[in-house]
Amino acid sequence: MKGMSERFVRLSVVALLGVVLLAVALLLVPRLGKSGQPEATFDEGAPLDVRNRYPAQCPVHATPLADDTVPVSYGLPDFAPVFAGDSYGRQMDLFPYAEVKYANGCVISDDSPWRAQVRYCSDCRDARSAYFADGQRQ
After folding, report:
1. Backbone angles phi and psi of 64, in degrees to 5
2. What are the distances in angstroms from CA 119 to CA 49, 60, 92, 102?
3. Which site in 84, 93, 94, 100 is 20 to 30 Å from 110, CA atoms measured?
């Protein structure tokens, strides 16, 4: 019987230490920044602002461009969708300012932006949606 009570005491001590360690860990997890607010674990940073690179209106649709924030893509652009005469150049002729993402080159660093502020044409976005709606184009 004495062996059972010693084992119970040891298990109780181990359990208590586990609870204490868990409580300490939970207290330390939300690291507070200078403002007293928890720091983000992943900071996307400010979006890349490229709105000054756009004209006032779409040259294809004569629609005024509007502001939006879109994802930034890195790496070589996918020019592979060349289906039966479809090409990147054709897409640029039909909807040059759809701007659903912003290509920012091939090199990524720790401070590379993951969002970009762009200007887009709503008619270009509609044309792009219709162009890819048949499911044959990617």
Report:
1. -60, 140
2. 10, 15, 15, 10
3. 100
pLDDT the model gives residue 34: 47
Distance from C-alpha of 94 to C-alpha of 59, rounded to nearest angstrom? 10
- Considering the entire predicted model, what is its pTM? 0.61
- Here the tokens at position 26 are 């939970």
Structure tokens at 82: 């060349």
d(CA 99, CA 63): 14
Q: Which two tokens stand for residue 75?
A: 């790496």
The amino acid that residue 75 corresponds to is: G
Q: Where are the domains positioned within the chain?
A: 1-29, 48-132
